[in-house]
Amino acid sequence: MDNPKIRVLFVCLGNICRSPMAEAVFAHMVQHRGLSDMFTIDSAGTAGYHEGAKPDRRSTATCAAHNVPVNHRARRIRKSDFSQFDHILCMDESNYEDLVRMQPAASTAQVALFGSYSKTPGDLIIEDPYYGGDDGFRTNFDQVTRCSEGLLTKLGFCLSDRLARE
């Protein structure tokens, strides 16, 4: 009997900075724990400003500095995402309010702030680094790494998962 995949969608405003970084970091972490076959992972934006664009070069460079591959094209969230994903995790309050407003009444997707999965004070909101420098992207990387670890723990996966599978 096949276990259904855990479906996770990361969301920010334009889908070129924070959410593709979160998608890449989480997917990398899942892969390194030997759990890739258990997840469907994607990202989207609440706005369509950058549809079809590659992630911001600073986001990609920050991930590359940590050997985390990024392979994504920006897209806007769709109504169907609310039925195709179990967890829709956003970066800030504005994203959250937009998602709650557009979420269909029959949706079973859990919409939450991705930062709520970190135990580190100050991680609740993952600020938009777009108009700042490289430091904001490095801060985001650290935040989404901690949040990814927290999400995996909350979903019942621990650090020893990869070792247990080997």
Observed structural traits:
4-stranded parallel beta sheet; single chain; alpha/beta; disordered C terminus; 39% helix
What does this 3D model show about the protein?
It contains six helices and four strands. By secondary structure, the protein is an alpha/beta fold. The protein has a four-stranded parallel beta sheet with strand order 2-1-3-4, with helices on both faces. It starts with 5 loop residues before the first strand and ends with a helix. Mean pLDDT is 94; it is low at 161-166.
**Strand line-up in the sheet with most strands:** 2-1-3-4
Helix content, binned percent? 25-40%
Given as residue ranges, the uncertain stretches (5+ residues, pLDDT < 50) are 161-166
Strand residues, percent = 5-15%
Backbone structural class: alpha/beta
Q: Give the termini distance in whole angstroms.
A: 21 Å
Number of strands: 4
Order of helices and strands: EHEHHEHEHH
Please tell me the overall pLDDT.
Answer: 94
Sum up the overall morphology in one term: globular
Based on CA atoms alone, the radius of gyration comes out at 15 Å
**Count of helical segments?**
6
State the major sheet. Answer: 4 strands, parallel
Seen as an oligomer or otherwise, the chain set is single chain
Describe the structure in brief:
The chain contains 6 helices and 4 strands. With 166 residues, it is α/β, with parallel strands linked by helices. A 4-stranded parallel sheet has the order 2-1-3-4, with helices on both faces.
